[in-house]
User: What shape does this take?
Amino acid sequence: MTKTSTSLLKKFPAATLLPATLIAAFVATASPAGAISRVETTQHDCSAIRGTLIREGAAILRYKSKRGLPLHDRYVSSSLLCESPSVGAWARVPARDTKSCRVIRCDPHGADDDNGLLDFRPLLQIRAP
Assistant: This one.
C-alpha cells in the first residue's frame, strides 16, 4: 500500500467495508428468483393442485387441450400475485379426479377491457378446505 492509501484507511476505516458491503448487496439481489413448480394437472387430484398453489403461491399448470395440444400457464393462489397489468381470473383445468378443477389464472389481457377507466376487481383467492 502507498502512503496515501494507508493514510486514507486510517482517516476513513468505513471505506474498507464499502467494497465488501457492495458485493454482499449485489449477491443478495442478484440471486436467481425462486423456482416455480410445474404441475402436470392430469397426474394430480384437484385438491393437490390447489394445495400446491396455496403452499407455493404460484405454479405453472400443464395439461393437454381437447385436441391433444399441450397447454400451460401461470396460476396463482390469489389475484394479488398477478404481475401488472395482468389480472386474476377464475379458470378451470382438468385434474386426475375431475374434468374441471377451479383455479386462478393470471390473464395478461384482462386489463384491456377497462377502456382507460379505473376498474376495481374483486380479490380472488383459493382457500384451504
The beta strands are 37-40, 58-64, 70-76, 87-93, 101-107. Residues 14-30 form the longest helix (17 residues).
